[in-house]
Amino acid sequence: MRPDTPSLRPAQTEGGFGVYVHWPFCLAKCPYCDFNSHVRHEAPDQARFVAAFRREIAHMRDLHGPAEAQTVFFGGGTPSLMEPATVAAILEAINTAWPIAADAEITLEANPTSVEAERFRGYRTAGVNRLSLGVQALEERDLKSLGRTHSVAEALAAVSIARATFGRVSFDLIYARPRQTPESWARELARALDEGCDHYSLYQLTIEPGTAYERLYSAGKLIIPDDDHARALWDVTQEVMGAAGLPAYEISNHARPGAEARHNLVYWRYGTYAGVGPGAHGRLTAGAERRATFTERQPERWLQAVEAEGHGMVSQEMLDTFTQGDELLLMGLRLAEGIDLPRHARLAGRPIDPARIAALADEGLVERSGDRLRVLPEGFPVLNAVIAELAR
Fold first, then answer.
1. Chain segment 342-383, per-residue pLDDT in tens
2. SS (H, E, C) the chain
């Protein structure tokens, strides 16, 4: 449907426009996961969901108005449980609402099981040109404890199929796992790099409320690395990936120059995006107004609402200037490129206190260069504290 994506465009003052599609179903719930994912004993009626996606996409088009879709992202849940025909139909609906750019990045998240890998060529034919593979670990013991249903061999076979099928492939791993050492993590990263992918998402394991891991952690049955140990693993990540020519362009994401995830950059550069499907968030604009949208999380209730009302939104909120300024800080300072200070001042209605910037710069945590402010490597491990100080 679309050619593979060329190199990333230079940093943009505004963030662009993309479409996020949430497929909420999984075969099993991973113990660390707090995403909006649901396990069903019977497979969902995909034709019925396609019809609902068409209606909600049309509704979001009415709210946002015309635009060119520069990126599309199928997230979940497990989008690789969708039939390729379902993906193609949703892309057709998006293209009707917002013409998809000829060089658009179209990403689909996938589990690297052999069953799902069989669908990869179908997704490519449907229009997907980038695959994000949730490998998560290259240790059999850890895959099992993370609740993953694939083996290491199965994951690496899926990576090979993906690289032969798509122009771009992202490889996801979780670190700071129980019993993980800096030495074992360095070996795991080296093994992942041997696969030759152009993008790696490397997330630190965190204990999220409401997950099985939280219950185990609270009961003392799950022990994860403390802050100092996690920092050592972070340092290894930066060293290994930087030496391989894939520096961190965002706090948890590494890429070869030009292979950055353009859809995620829409979020981090505080662009606008339509979020469709159960539990999807969006940031839409109409004139000077910016609104946050959120849809019903429970899939069957979302489906019924769309069939009755034309959309599954449960809230939409006009964002005031302070909120927009804070959101730009939260998203933009995750990026190595940082934020545009005049844009922040325009959105927030006031500039950041120069004294706070200077104090953080003296500590070696941030750097100001002309109109741009960015967090330095020493600041990323304490990013939340840096943002809180700047937002005061």
1. 999 999 999 999 999 999 999 999 999 999 999 999 999 999
2. CCCCCCCCCCCCCCCCEEEEEEECEECCCCCCCCCCCEECCCCCCHHHHHHHHHHHHHHHHHHHCCCCEEEEEEEECCHHHCCHHHHHHHHHHHHHHCCEEEEEEEEEEECCCHHHHCCHHHHHHHCCCEEEEEEECCCHHHHHHCCCCCCHHHHHHHHHHHHHHCCEEEEEEEECCCCCCHHHHHHHHHHHHCCCCCEEEEEECCCCCCCHHHHHHHCCCCCCCCHHHHHHHHHHHHHHHHHCCCCEEECCEEECCCCCCHHHHHHHCCCEEEEECCCCEEEEEECCEEEEEEECCCHHHHHHHHHHHCCCEEEEEECCHHHHHHHHHHHHCCECCCEEHHHHHHHHCCCCCHHHHHHHHHCCCEEEECCEEEECCCCHHHHHHHHHHHHC
Give the CA diameter of the chain.
58
**Domains of the chain with bracketed CATH:** 17-267 (3.20.20.70), 339-392 (no CATH)
Q: How confident is the model at residue 4 (pLDDT cuts 50, 70, 90)?
A: very low
CB 174 within 8 A of CB 137: yes
Res 284 pLDDT > 60: yes
Cis bond upstream, residue 77 (ω within 30)? yes
* The model's pTM: 0.93
pLDDT band, very low/low/confident/very high, at 15 (cuts 50, 70, 90): confident
- Closest among 328, 330, 259 to 13, alpha carbons compared: 328
d(Cα 274, Cα 110) in Å, to the nearest integer? 21
Cβ-Cβ contacts under 8 Å for 83 (sequence gap 6 or more):
46, 119, 122
Structure token digits, residue 338: 């940082």
Q: Could you give the CA distance from residue 291 to residue 324 in angstroms, rounded to a whole number?
A: 10
pLDDT of residue 3 exceeding 60, the answer is no
Q: How many angstroms separate the CA atoms of 195 and 102, rounded?
A: 29
Q: Is 247 exposed, middle or buried (0-12, 13-18, 19+ CB in 10 A)?
A: middle
